[in-house]
Amino acid sequence: MEPVEVDRLIIGVSETYDVIVTIPNENISYEFLATPEDRTNATSIFIGEGVKQLANPMPKLKYFEGMKMMNNMMHMDGTMDDMGMQMSFQKMDMNTVMYPEIAGNSMRNKMGKHEKMNAKGMEMNHSNHNMPSKESNRITLNYAMLKSPTKTTLSKEAPVRELHFELTGNMNRYVWSMDNKVLAETDKILIKKGEVLRITLYNNSMMRHPMHLHGHDFRILNGQGEYAPLKNVLDIMPMETDVIEFEANADGDWFFHCHILYHMMAGMNRVFSYENSKPNPYLTNKEKAYKKLQAESNRFHFMAENDFATNGNDGQMMLQNTRWSLATEWRLGYNDHHGYESETHIGRYIGRNQWFMPFIGFDARYRKLDYGEIEKNLFGQTSTKDKRLQASIGFAYTLPMLITFQSELYHDGNVRLQLMREDIPISKRLRMAFMVNTDKEYMAGFKYIAGKNIGITTHYDSDMGFGFGVNLNY
């Protein structure tokens, strides 16, 4: 790449840049600070000898500004509205609203020191270290600035084949895909040696995706014409449409995937396969190997939690992949009046954003009622929660504010409607939960997240009363 001088450089996962650092003073050791985009931590080295000069730490992100922007841009069907901005090649970073040093508040004027970078990646100029910076003029590297020092044009005689991929995902369930399909739901993409593959990538999500192609460098069609830069990773910002191209000049199968590995393992990947490839002596059964790769991108994941409380024991287990869910939950009182119950549902998520999940289920309950006591639900149907062994069909639908609406029909004709949410953020570590249904059951509670797998809870349940305890999760 030709050198480019900038103030900020955001590096995508697995991207590489050459950075040349110029030390202006012999008796000062300058801190070279690298910070993750979420600003949760940082690492650094000191370059030079002498008195250490610290770099200014990055301020905390304004998460709610980002969430408000995302909510304003999201349609009800889960697709995003780019508001006609036609974003490409990082020239407009949607995450900028979360950066205090860029977005413009009182903190910007306090950021007095910054480092000039020049990318040949980037050449750092520390000579302005003690001069106040003008944040409004801060320059961030984007792909449109990159230019190859030599021509990178491909053969004009080669046939051009165009492919289009939409990068899709469900941020609530953290499921990622391409064209709303994971690798397990697609075949290999057959390509021919000698052709030019021109790929349009549209990121219809609010997360960036560094897309990596194995075995090839591709041209970024960023407006530099014959001098388009070559890369093998393209970090695609939210709502961007980027175009790349490469010459099919290899053999065999090559992986194309998001290099955020948990996006890749969730299904955001494809395989390019050359037609009439020579046999691979290290891969005796290509079909079996591909099926194994497909299975790895759509694995079932096990999750469980249990609340050991003073008024009872309740928890849930889930086994889920991209489409399917097997879930069991239980509430076990410490006496017959508190009752014992469990519900099991097998469902399949439908649609791009997976708001809708039809299911079949089984419900088992027992709670000792007082003599002559008969409970009815809101529809006037006699409640069977004193002794219930029922099969059911129903659906769960995610409403705005991530509230789950559940409708269930039991085989005896009883109907239950329910509203629930279990993870309402009150603060960084405090969560609230509630549930109410037409069986006249209700619950409300709080959980303090003490660690990755442990929490302190308190809640009130209409059957089991008030309690507090410890929540363990996996």
SSE layout:
Layout: E1 4-6, E2 20-22, E3 28-34, E4 43-47, E5 51-53, H1 63-73, H2 100-103, E6 117-119, E7 123-125, E8 160-170, E9 175-178, E10 189-191, E11 196-203, E12 209-213, E13 218-220, E14 230-231, E15 233-236, E16 241-247, E17 253-258, H3 261-266, E18 269-274, H4 286-296, E19 301-309, E20 312-320, E21 324-332, E22 340-348, E23 356-366, E24 387-398, E25 404-410, E26 415-425, E27 430-437, E28 442-451, E29 454-461, E30 465-473
Parallel strand pairs: 2-7, 3-5, 8-11, 10-18
Antiparallel strand pairs: 1-6, 3-4, 8-9, 11-16, 12-15, 12-17, 13-14, 13-16, 17-18, 19-20, 19-30, 20-21, 21-22, 22-23, 23-24, 24-25, 25-26, 26-27, 27-28, 28-29, 29-30
Question: Could you describe the 3D structure shown?
Answer:
- It is a single chain.
- This protein has 474 residues and is mainly β.
- It is built from four helices and 30 strands.
- It has three domains: 97 residues, no CATH class; 137 residues, Immunoglobulin-like; 173 residues, Porin.
- A hairpin with a 2-residue loop joins β19 and β20.
- The radius of gyration is 28 Å and the shape is globular.
